[in-house]
Design goal:
Elements (H helix, E strand, L loop, with lengths): L1 H6 L5 E7 L4 E8 L4 E8 H29 L1 E9 L14 E2 L2 E4 H11 L19 E6 L2 H28 L3 H11 L5 H5 L4 E2 L5 E7 L2 E6 L1 H12 L8 H16 L7 E6 L3 E7 L5 E4 L4 E4 L5 E3 L4 E2 L16 E3 L4 E3 L10
Parallel strand pairs: 7-14, 8-14, 9-15
Antiparallel strand pairs: 1-2, 2-3, 4-6, 4-7, 5-16, 9-12, 10-11, 11-18, 12-13, 17-18
Helix pairs in contact: 2-4, 7-8
Length: 347
């Protein structure tokens, strides 16, 4: 397997037979040291594991190259906004306030570089709340350095996409994907691996950091909900007992069974607060989700509107699209009947 991993970049690995019914492939590998071909049997599982290891190795290498390259450039400005860590016990608590701490200059620059390779969750941190470090770096250099920076980040983002494609293509079952990733990389947060590093090479005059909420919505069916409730029955929450929990599940199953068979259901809930940055002018005032620092390549500092504390009770505006319409079916699951807009005929 080691030869396969090493020789993949040399394109000396050729699948010569595939037995899809049992998930096995036979590979023919050329060994240049003795000028002979060797055959290796590799299961689908082993192949994906090797691909993920190799992609992670390449990704780490390219990020190290990015860090080295950024240290050779002129740093015009740098700021990051530290957000409080979410501990595992606080994963499901409603967020009323998020305090933001501004860090500037050299310390911010170093924190930004560290964030590009932060893929694992911290000790005691929530496994369902990814690490975030909004902010920006303004750097400058020669035309060759600018081109190298662009190509480096393009390779990094391509590797991130390839890693995601391997994981998502492994199985539709989320538990299987989770077990695959964490059998190879302990404490890895895949969402942190998937995030692209944002780079803007056009001149930017103004950037504005702010908070936003989005809806997470997807359709489901009555049968899928019944299957979900059966799985929930087997996992009694820590703050409940099996008798009470079974009573809750039985009641929810009864509610679902009473629905008309043609009922359209959907999960819909407001996401946790998201940080975003508005970049002006950049392709007509582009909005970018700001989970890791934005890199700007230019000579001048932009005017910056800093990220403020998030206060759920003092949101600056109320938008109609932040309202969840529809009839709640099971509030615990954020499950709704599909909302049918009523049309009033005007005469």
């Amino acid at each position: 397997m080691r030869e396969i991993l090493i020789l993949q970049e040399m394109r000396n690995v050729f699948p010569i037979m595939r037995y899809r019914s049992i998930g096995v492939e036979i590979y023919c590998v050329y060994n240049p040291s003795n000028k002979k071909w060797n055959a290796y049997i590799m299961s689908k599982q082993s192949k994906i594991e090797q691909n993920l290891k190799h992609l992670k190795y390449q990704l780490d290498r390219e990020i190290n190259n990015l860090t080295s390259l950024l240290r050779t450039l002129d740093v015009i400005d740098s700021k990051v906004y530290l957000l409080p860590e979410i501990k595992d016990a606080d994963t499901h608590k409603d967020i009323k306030k998020i305090s933001v701490s501004l860090v500037s200059d050299y310390k911010a620059f170093n924190l930004a570089l560290q964030s590009f390779s932060t893929f694992e969750k911290g000790l005691g941190d929530s496994g369902k709340r990814a690490f975030r470090l909004p902010g920006y770096l303004v750097v400058n250099g020669s035309a060759i350095q600018k081109e190298n920076l662009y190509e480096n980040i393009t390779r990094i983002n391509k590797l991130k996409d390839d890693f995601k494609k391997q994981v998502q293509g492994y199985s539709k079952n989320s538990n299987k994907k989770y077990n695959l990733v964490h059998s190879l990389f302990n404490n890895l947060m895949t969402v942190q691996v998937y995030r692209h590093i944002p780079l803007v090479t056009e001149n930017v005059e103004y950037i504005n950091f702010s908070w936003t909420n989005k809806h997470i919505t997807y359709k489901t069916s009555i049968q899928e909900i019944l299957n979900l409730l059966d799985r929930h029955r087997k996992k009694t929450p820590k703050r409940s007992n099996s008798e009470d929990w079974n009573r809750i599940i039985d009641n929810e199953i009864s509610i679902i069974n009473e629905l008309p068979k043609d009922t359209t259901l959907r999960f819909k809930r407001v996401s946790k607060p998201i940080t975003r940055v508005d970049v002006v002018p950049y392709k007509k005032n582009k909005q970018i989700i700001s989970n890791i620092p934005l890199i700007l390549f230019q000579t001048e500092k932009p005017v910056v509107s800093n990220l403020q504390d998030y206060l759920s009770a003092q949101r600056r505006s109320f938008r109609e699209d932040t309202t969840i319409y529809g009839i709640p079916v099971i509030k615990r699951l954020h499950l709704y009947k599909k909302h049918i807009k009523r049309v009033t005929n005007l005469k």
